[in-house]
Amino acid sequence: MKRTLFAISIILILMSCNNQPKPAEEPDTTTNRTWWKEAVIYQIYPRSFKDTNGDGVGDLKGIIEKLDYIQSLGVNMVWLNPIYGSPNDDNGYDISDYRAIMEEFGTMEDFDAMLKGMHDRGIKFVMDVVVNHSSDEHEWFKQSRSSRDNPYRDYYHWWPAERGKPNYRWSYFDEKGEAWMYDSTTNAYYLHYFSRKQPDLNWENPKVRQEVYDIMKFWAEKGVDGFRLDAFQFVSKDTTFPKLPEGYEKEVIKYYGMGPNLHDYLKEMNREVLSQYNVFAVSEGAGSTFEDAHNLVDAGRNELQMAYHFEGVDLCNSLEGYELADFKEVHSRWDSAFAQEGWLSIFLANHDVARLVSRYGNDKPQFRAPSSKMLNTFILSMRGTPYCYYGDELGMTNIGFDSIEQYRDIAAINGYKKTVNSGGDVEHFLKTLKFLSRDNGRTPMQWDGSENAGFTTGTPWLPVNPNYTTINVKAQEGDPNSCLSYFRKMVKLRKDNPVLVYGDYELVRPEHEQVYAYTRTLGDVKMLVLLNFSDEAAGIELPEGTATDEVLINNYDAVETAGLAVNLKPYQAVVYALK
Ligand code: NOJ
User: Fold this and answer.
1) Predicted pLDDT of residue 487
2) pTM assigned to the model
3) With contact defined as beta carbons under 8 Å apart, do 78 and 123 qualify?
4) How far is the CA of 246 from the centre of ligand 1 (A)?
5) Contacts of 247 (CB under 8 A, 6+ apart)
6) DSSP for 294-356?
7) Which domains does the chain have, with CATH numbers?
8) How far, in Å, is the centroid of ligand 1 from the Cα of 286?
């Protein structure tokens, strides 16, 4: 099928808010119960959540104002994208002060109040740690670039120009696609895997590593409960910078990821920071093989607790959309590789991709709500810790900009420049961007039907999606059939049923072209999940011995069943208890 375009609450969560020394870990298996496995994480892009001072940019006071809403979702952990001091070349992923709060977002007092407000509500907090690179406006880099013998010189990667041009390195955001930038002050090139204003830190320098651990301790002492390590698989580098094969950038993670000393650094970080507090850490990226991923997260290794791999979220990366068969295959393969040991994250959307329902579901008016509910059923019924992105609980959709002037994201703007300068297909680039741009997933939260969706009284930094008049929290609050009400029910179902967290996963009718069906089993508790990924009705004959008992959740009023035959409506999602 081709898709077009697109509690047992071990209430450790309620335990002390202050960070206590961490008890010794038992050997981990997937069924060993731990608070971070039982979490449902809500990701907030702070720029876009709620503005309280009318400057058009979301702020921490806005998050504080909405804490009761966040709690009402049932989620028990929040991950915020970076809120540190930053010139915002990449919206906070370029940090100039790791111990300060970005002025647009508020003050350290606001942060403390926000954290307390979360903890008072039994919600844990995950801090984004961006240390593969800093901002070029960080004092370390200012010093480093000032002279070759500055004590901070080796905080970054420099290549003296008298040695000739360094071997080509590809950059994610550079407008020429080059990761080496010439700097005339010292007649040398510095490395930046991301933008020119995001120079890569030199992790091979022990002083840099100590600085990072001190920063992490600063936030752990404040009481944060977890760290999300941005682009961390890239930190360790072969500093001889050898020539890489032609076209290597098509498999960039294989070449940039899992550098020579990465595991030593993670063990060091674990010893110095993670093991000293009741915190967990999740790596953005998991290398390029299962072995890489296991080596990051398996408990006996004393490195990280969790990782997120990109195979699932990357399935829909072109205008052609994706195949359900591939979707099932990827998620089943990763699940089985982590069935005995290690722990992963489950997500289909975040601030780096377009909206969940527009990419993996169907945002046409008649299908938006059912497909959005169906996708949330998937995320919240799989093994692994679910990450739910703000606005996806409402079924917020892509905004779909038509002109490059409308974008704010450096990836879009510099990608456009690169396409123009290299004589690429600009029309195709813009069409793809309209569907896949990160800005699609960053438009302001739609709170109500008032001007600017109740996000700001000023001019929003990124336009509000015009469909806010109908798709918004206020409209959905009062409607028991809304996406929001369904999301709350589904979160509750997961939290009340450890089988959805820890249970074994088994595909049912793997060959079915429209329906993704699987069971989850823990001891004698068994559930069946049926998800129709298509815009047409779909019949499925359940295997002999699949005796459905109760319907636990359904995104339609009823489900048509006759014996073992179930007839699902377009994008219908049903979770059954099995006898
Ligand atoms: C990954 C982050 O998720 C993304 O938003 C950012 O642009 C890059 N890392 C660079 O920090």
Assistant:
1) 98
2) 0.95
3) yes
4) 25
5) none
6) HHHH-GGG-S-SEEE-STTTTS--STT--BHHHHHHHHHHHHHHTSSS--BEE-S--TTS--H
7) 139-191 (3.90.400.10)
8) 15
246 and 171 Cβ atoms separated by less than 8 Å: no
List C-alpha distances in Å: 516 to 378, 434, 503, 551, 552. 9, 28, 17, 17, 17
Q: Which atom in ligand 1 lies closest to the alpha carbon of residue 411?
A: 7
The encoded tokens of residue 281 equal 């850490």
- Most informative mutation of 96, 127, 130 for ligand 1 (most atoms within 8 A of CB): 130
CB hemisphere CA count around 399 (13 angstroms): 22
Q: What pLDDT shows up at residue 19? A: 58
Check 89, 110, 204, 284 and give the catalytic one.
Answer: 284
Catalytic residue among 128, 136, 225, 230: 230
Mutate to test the pocket of ligand 1, among 79, 93, 128, 232 (most ligand atoms within 8 A of CB): 93
Q: How far is the CA of 432 from the centre of ligand 1 (A)?
A: 20
* Ligand 1 pocket at CB < 6 A: 90, 93, 130, 194, 230-231, 284, 351-352
Instruction: Indicate which residue's Cα is closest to atom 11 of ligand 1.
Output: 93
Q: Is 468 helix (H, G, I), strand (E, B) or coil?
A: helix
Are 563 and 534 in contact by the 8 Å Cβ rule? The answer is no
User: What is the 3-class SS of 42-63, one letter each residue?
Assistant: EEECHHHCCCCCCCCCCCHHHH
Taking the C-alpha atoms of residue 59 and residue 51, their distance in angstroms, rounded to an integer, is: 5
Give CA–CA dist 87/8, Å, rounded. 44
Q: Which residue, by CA, sits nearest to atom 10 of ligand 1?
A: 93
- Would you give the distance in Å from CA 475 to the centre of its chain? 27
HSE, CB side, 13 Å, CA atoms: give it for residue 433. Answer: 24
Burial of 521 (C-beta count, 10 Å sphere; 0-12/13-18/19+): middle
Round to whole Å and give the CA distance between 8 and 418.
52
Quote the pLDDT of residue 71.
98
Whether residue 57 has pLDDT greater than 90 = yes
- On the question of pLDDT at 4 being above 60, the answer is no
How many Cβ atoms are within 10 Å of 277's Cβ, its own excluded?
A: 22
Specify whether the CB–CB gap between 57 and 162 falls below 8 A: no
To the query of whether residue 284 is one of the catalytic residues in this protein, the response is: yes
pLDDT at residue 119 above 80? yes
Strand partners, 538: 568
Residue among 229, 234, 352 to mutate when testing ligand 1 (max atoms within 8 A of CB): 352
DSSP letter at 105 equals G
For residues 22 and 278, the answer to whether their CB atoms sit within 8 Å is yes
How far CA 418 is from CA of 39, 212, 256, 415, 431, in Å, comes to: 41, 33, 21, 5, 16
φ/ψ of residue 42, rounded to 5: -110, 120
The residue-averaged pLDDT of 320-336 equals 98
Q: Which residues share a beta bridge with 277?
A: none
The verdict on whether 329 is a catalytic residue reads: no
